What does this fold into?
Amino acid sequence: MPSISRRSGQLGTENAFVVLAEVSELQRQGKDIVSFCIGQPDFPTPGNIREAAIQAINDGKHGYTPSSGIVELREAAANYLNRTRNLDYAAGDIVVAAGAKPFIMYSVLATTDYGAGEEVIYPNPGFPIYESQIRANGAIPVPLHLRESRGFSFDPNELESRISDKTRLLILNSPQNPTGGIVPREDMQAIADILRRHPQVWVFADEIYSQLCYDGEFVSITSFPDMLERSIVCDGASKTWAMTGWRIGFAANRELAPVFTRWVTNTESCASHISQWAAVEALNGQQDEAKRMRDRFLERRNLIVDLLNGVPGVNCQVPGGAFYAWPNITEACDMIGAKDSEEFRKRLLNEAGVAVLADIHFGARVPDEGQHIRFSYAASNEAIREGVSRMAQFIEKNSKIRKSA
It folds into this structure.
């Protein structure tokens, strides 16, 4: 057989989809599973957005578009970023892609050269595609640890210690997947101050959860002096407007917009024409449904954190944004004799019918930070109550067995 490229071998995956496949197989076998593994809103896309897509189909808007996206969507995205972040983008600064995810790859490709030993700093734990794309595109991944003691932010001093003359890109994600943590303003200010001393470093600001903040304020790195020109702001329709399957994301940077456009031309050609018109309505239309979804996520956050903190051996900080809870289960693992969070996750799925993700699905476990699992609380209140109840019963049952052994 012909060989497979080393680059392909370095590609990681998004384990939410791997666990989702496990869940689907168990459900196919007739097992009752309460799933918290996939990070997508469980609400339907708002009706006005769906109607805009239908209108686009009826109007014949289903051919190729410019690789950068239709001008109406780029204008809408610029206006959205300007009003939510107090910026001054123009349509020409915006590029549209099939989701926000491609811009991770495009940003690594645009700022580093393959095999040159150039480095990209990324958050750990973090969205697993960060590390995957850094490695696959020939750069060196440098993890920056998120600390529970800092509300799952990182110490700016640790950032400075990781920057070298080979550093070309810093990935920031706030609010964050998987912890729900938000980088506070004082830390973002410190990050900006550090970056001014290192002018060779670009910033990829993954702000896909920007409109899902519950405690404190959303702060973009672009709001600080000298940061706008060197920052790639990435957002999209998936999370705020429940449009994950429509595949619309956008990135903003005046210098790199032409570069991103060429990458889109070389890969996707363009995002879906129909989805782009739906996204115009999402950004420009009434926001009542988006606000209702945010309010429901806040209600669910409060519910799941309260319930998790009532489970023996579990401690859960209150996440500031997104729709993820990241409880510390170190004591629970000890109670049931699980060696780590991954063993806990597998047993919880197969013995209690509750699907979650383990911390190692989001990068190497942070030293001295204990064991964690991720719940996506994009689920009904009933599912949250049932899932956490099953988890509590699972721990209690196995703790009794261990004590009597």
Notes: The chain is about 40% helix and 10% strand. The chain has a mean pLDDT of 95. Residues 6-44+289-404 form a domain with the Aspartate Aminotransferase, domain 1 fold (CATH 3.90.1150.10).
